[in-house]
């Protein structure tokens, strides 16, 4: 689009810039983000987007915003710079965790949708020298999946390229106090306030929170805050962490931890388990072996993801998060930073929710009245 002098108009320049910067990823941010990025009004931005619409490169849909069409993506791949290459690093131990592999699967899926190359590299658990990874000329950005030494974070961020750490906050307990990368977290801790409110409404006043990761103690305080009003009365909230070290997390030790957890129950009316997989499943089995019914004898809340099939089978009330969605989010976050031309540091959260099912009910003393 040209003005009367035969020169490209402001909207024409803007549409060309949008195509150049966002074309390689095939992703378009919201109108608000684009207007802030280019320092223009929403009206000017829409005129620029209409030019791309008229060219058949961009389309829009209700509630989905603007996106590149198949024709647009084909044009972009032929005319724009080489396809970005992202490198994903994972420690050997983490690849044995089904939820972790779901996260990586989500990253692989989003990489295909976004037309980027994704290289997965496994690092030995005892590896500590990461100098060889500094300044990798073949990578445009990095992903660290789950727990990893802070030395790895420092090595990958040394050249200023975008780096996303994917996983829970406690997995980066030794990370530098000043974040030098973007960390994507499953924001579950605050959801436990909702769990606490639900148990309070069901008149539970003796609750156990059982976990094998010591850092989950923050969840105990969040649940406690739901009982802070004077009308809640006296509440006993017990935290129990069986003697299980991280390096000993084998199926057998997790079964033993579940056995110790159920044996620790003593008049508790609710049990909250902020983790899933073998530990949570074995707790269910131990409750059944001891003829402890839920919710008749005890209410049960478990944190899980799409790999925990037993949540549906036993209709367990749960704090639920899609790990696959988190893997997809890390690719989108890296591409956003690449499109903006700068790396960012901080924390961004991916969604989680509390789903109430049949494993939670009134406290036994109240139910019998």
From TrEMBL:
One of its GO terms (molecular function) is DNA-binding transcription factor activity. This is GntR family transcriptional regulator. Residues 4-71 form the HTH gntR-type domain. PANTHER family: HTH-TYPE TRANSCRIPTIONAL REGULATOR GALS, LACI-RELATED TRANSCRIPTIONAL REPRESSOR. Keywords: DNA-binding, Transcription, Transcription regulation. CDD domains: WHTH_GntR (cd07377). The keyword Repeat does not apply. Pfam families: GntR (PF00392), Peripla_BP_3 (PF13377).
């Amino acid at each position: 689009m040209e003005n009367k002098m035969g020169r490209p108009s402001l909207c024409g320049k803007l549409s060309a810039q949008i195509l150049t910067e966002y074309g390689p990823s095939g992703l378009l941010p919201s109108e608000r983000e684009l207007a802030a990025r280019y320092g223009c009004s929403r009206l000017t931005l829409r005129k620029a987007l209409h030019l791309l619409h008229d060219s058949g490169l961009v389309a829009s849909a209700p509630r989905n915003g603007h996106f590149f069409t198949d024709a647009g993506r084909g044009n972009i791949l032929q005319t724009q710079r080489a396809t970005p290459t992202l490198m994903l690093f994972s420690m050997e131990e983490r690849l044995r965790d089904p939820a972790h592999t779901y996260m990586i699967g989500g990253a692989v899926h989003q990489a295909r949708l976004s037309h980027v190359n994704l290289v997965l590299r496994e690092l030995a658990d005892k590896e500590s020298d990461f100098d060889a990874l500094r300044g990798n000329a073949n990578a445009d950005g990095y992903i660290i999946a789950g727990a990893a030494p802070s030395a790895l974070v420092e090595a990958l961020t040394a050249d200023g390229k975008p780096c996303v750490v994917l996983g829970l906050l406690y997995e980066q307990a030794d990370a530098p106090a000043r974040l030098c990368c973007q960390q994507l977290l499953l924001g579950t801790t605050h959801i436990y306030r909702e769990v606490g409110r639900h148990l309070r409404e069901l008149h539970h006043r003796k609750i156990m929170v059982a976990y094998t990761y010591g850092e989950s103690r923050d969840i105990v305080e969040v649940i406690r805050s739901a009982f802070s009003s004077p009308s809640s009365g006296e509440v006993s909230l017990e935290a129990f962490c069986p003697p299980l070290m991280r390096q000993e997390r084998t199926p057998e030790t997790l079964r033993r931890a579940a056995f110790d957890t159920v044996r620790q129950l003593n008049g508790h009316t609710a049990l909250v388990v902020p983790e899933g997989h073998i530990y949570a499943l074995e707790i269910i089995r131990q409750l059944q072996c001891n003829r402890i019914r839920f919710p008749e004898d005890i209410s049960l809340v478990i944190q899980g993801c799409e790999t925990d099939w037993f949540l549906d089978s036993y209709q367990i009330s749960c704090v639920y998060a899609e790990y696959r969605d988190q893997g997809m989010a890390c690719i989108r976050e890296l591409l956003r930073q690449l499109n903006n031309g700068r790396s960012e540091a901080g924390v961004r959260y991916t969604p989680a929710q509390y789903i109430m099912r049949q494993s939670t009910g009134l406290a036994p003393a109240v139910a019998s009245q």
